[in-house]
Amino acid sequence: MTLPLMVFAAGFGTRMGALTAHQPKPMIPVAGRPLIDHALGLGLAVGAGPVVVNTHYLADQIAHHLAGRPVVLSHEAEEILETGGGLRQALPHLGQGPVMTLNSDAVWTGLNPLRQLLDQWDPARMDALLLLLPADQARGYRGTGDFVLDAEGRISRAKGAHGMAYLGAQILRPEGLHRIPQRVFSLNLLWDEMIAKGRAFGMVHQGGWCDVGRPEGIAEAEALLGAKDV
User: Fold this and answer.
1) What one-character-per-residue DSSP string does 67-134 give?
2) Which of 23, 104, 134, 170 is close enough to 9 for a disulfide, judged by CB 3.0 to 4.6 Å?
3) Domain 5-227 carries which CATH code?
4) What span, in angstroms and rounded, lies between the C-alpha atoms of 13 and 207?
5) What angle do CA 116, 75, 127 make, to 5 degrees?
């Protein structure tokens, strides 16, 4: 089984400072490959399709880089729509039913994160399945955790407790997006609905992960990849 994939690549990357003054963050090279290629490689490996990439900041550079590849661009021309609004705009390209989403500003080692999600996805019980790591194991992550897991794998908000970091990879039923009135909004709004219904789940990533949201994250990500001979 595989599913459509949405790769988020529209942000300004302001935390990267001068590195994103003239290029979008997904084009920053890590271990010799732009971040967007690391993300798309994960999707290719699991046969994801269709694949949609959203764009906004310096979108022409991403479009040029991806020209000729089997990728659909969802351009957010007027403003960045955030994760929820961006996914909703892209739905006509993604088809009906669940979708995988992946942030483009991280690197992974170990088992393919999308394969792990696909293997555990249970549509009878789940409206969302998020990939997580204990906050102290998530390189480049700043915080004490986004979620905690119960004995059955359901997630709830960490609320200050030491919990799990969300790694930017998930499977999600997107139908609820159409009930949200805002044009620009985060997927947190949809997650909260699913958590309240007991249909939002999480699982622990079997491998390493590093956020590349700040300049120092590049060297840390390359060290992680090098340590795993990737």
Assistant:
1) TTSS-EEEE--SS--HHHHHHHHHHHHH-SS-EEEEESSEEE-SS-HHHHHHHH--TTT-SEEEEEEE
2) 104
3) 3.90.550.10
4) 25
5) 35
What does the block give as tokens for 84? 């929820």
95: amino acid identity, one letter = G
Query: Which positions ≥6 away from 114 have C-beta within 8 Å?
Result: 5, 42, 43, 45, 46, 48, 100, 102, 169
The C-alpha torsion from 102 through 106 and 107 to 112, rounded to 10°, is: -20
- Helix, strand or coil for residue 144? coil
Predicted confidence (pLDDT) per residue in 98-131, tens digit: 999 999 999 999 999 999 999 999 999 999 999 9
Strands 209-211 and 99-103: unpaired
Would you call 25 helix, strand, or coil by DSSP?
helix
Backbone angles phi, psi at 224, to 5 degrees: -65, -45
Q: What is the mean pLDDT of the chain?
A: 95
Instruction: Pick the closest to residue 200 from 230, 162, 156, 161 (CA basis).
Output: 156
What per-residue confidence (pLDDT) applies to 159?
A: 85
Q: What is the pLDDT of residues 161-209, one digit of tens each?
A: 789 999 999 999 999 999 999 999 999 999 999 999 999 999 999 999 9
Distance CA 213, CA 218 (A): 8
In this model, does residue 227 exceed pLDDT 60? yes
C-alpha 210 chain-centroid distance: 13
